[in-house]
Design goal:
Layout: H1 3-7, H2 15-23, H3 32-53, E1 62-66, E2 72-74, H4 75-90, E3 94-99, E4 106-107, E5 113-124, E6 135-143, E7 164-170, E8 174-179, E9 185-190, E10 195-200, E11 211-213, H5 224-234, E12 244-245, H6 251-261, E13 264-267, E14 278-279, H7 280-293, E15 297-299, E16 316-317, E17 319-322, H8 324-340
Parallel strand pairs: 3-5, 11-12, 11-13
Antiparallel strand pairs: 1-2, 3-4, 5-6, 6-7, 7-8, 8-9, 9-10, 13-17, 14-16, 15-17
Helix pairs in contact: 2-3, 3-4, 5-8
């Protein structure tokens, strides 16, 4: 890559231009999705700026409340949640919002209502703020017919019904990864322009990876197939090299690495969390959507992750996502376990 030539590139593909180009492929589109996305992007820029200033602005202390998941809320969590709710409602394109921070879904008032339902985790990995580890925002978008009063059923849909999903990672740079259904693209915030520029066009996850990512501290509580797969990663019997373990503990950062370098990210079911730990609507679904659109797979231990039908908005599920061949191995181990039973 010629960085010198790159530095003088004047034909920059911004995220707005990219989405407008996509929109032009559908003559029937009204531009609603583009408007909605521009509000999400604005929210991401605001949170990115706040995260960068967190230490200085004394935002780091706990807000003193506990969120619906029983996690202590950081002030930045509260701020990010408010920013995204206001940005999404003011777009005039949303009907229902589901946030990790709020116990109940938010139904947008009729005068500001649109065709989209947005599910999101405004600041995933917020317990890592104090130590400077990458954190992020995760979102998924459903479209619903506007011929009825909105109900919870509009968002309690399988992940395969999503029209778009993405995440924004606040790390060494601010990176937004997005799929609107055809392929996955990564954009990096250029602070001098205040614009997200296309830096990772058409991301494809490697078919097989050399990395596995899991919290090994839970190993004593794992089920058989998970334990066998991790054992195989460390002590392969076919003479191949062992896989490397990489686990950050911030889902956005771990999935981002998996998407770019390949391998497996897993948060399996265990004795402590029999239903898994990650939330279906705004963690498992958006990440599974992105991984599948990049050529990988996402599996719950029982079925394709995007086929799950959630019954509650904060429902949890185990998940294994990553390179196609690696997930095939995990599926085979679960199938073998099923036959034994």
């Amino acid at each position: 890559m010629d960085h010198a030539a790159d530095a003088h590139r004047t034909d920059l593909m911004t995220i707005t231009r990219f989405v407008l180009n996509e929109q032009s492929k559908y003559p029937e589109s009204r531009g609603d999705f583009t408007i909605l996305l521009s509000h999400i992007v604005l929210g991401c820029k605001f949170v990115c700026s706040s995260v960068n200033k967190a230490g200085l602005a004394k935002l780091i202390g706990l807000a003193g409340e506990t969120n619906i998941q029983g996690e202590e809320q950081k002030k930045l969590d509260v701020l990010s949640n408010e920013v995204f709710i206001k940005a999404l409602v003011s777009s005039g394109r949303t009907r229902i919002l589901v946030s990790e921070e709020d116990e109940d879904a938010i139904f947008v008032e009729p005068s500001k209502r649109g065709r989209y339902c947005v599910v999101f985790d405004p600041l995933d990995g917020s317990s890592n703020i104090d130590c400077g580890v990458s954190i992020g925002t995760i979102f998924g978008i459903y479209m619903v017919k506007d011929d009825h009063e909105p109900t919870l059923d509009d968002v309690l849909q399988p992940g395969k019904q999503m029209v778009a999903a993405g995440y924004c990672m606040y790390g060494s740079s601010c990176t937004l990864v997005l799929s609107t259904g055809n392929g996955v693209n990564g954009f990096t915030l250029d602070p001098s322009l205040g614009e997200f520029i296309l830096t990772h066009p058409d991301i494809k996850i490697p078919k097989k990876g050399k990395i596995y990512s899991v919290n090994e501290g839970n190993a004593k509580n794992w089920d058989g197939p998970t334990a066998k797969f991790v054992e195989k990663c460390k002590f392969p019997k076919d003479g191949s090299s062992s896989k490397s373990l990489r686990y950050i503990g911030s889902m956005v950062a771990d999935v981002h690495r998996t998407l770019l370098y390949g391998g497996v990210f897993m948060y399996p079911t265990d004795k402590k969390s029999p239903n898994g730990k990650l939330r279906v609507l705004y963690e498992v679904f958006p990440m599974s959507f992105l991984i599948e659109k990049a050529g990988g797979q996402a599996f719950t231990g029982k079925q394709r992750a995007l086929d799950l039908v959630p019954m509650k908005i904060h429902e949890r599920s185990p998940v294994f996502l990553g390179s196609y061949d690696d997930i095939e191995e995990i599926k085979a181990l679960y199938a073998a376990e099923g036959k034994k039973e």
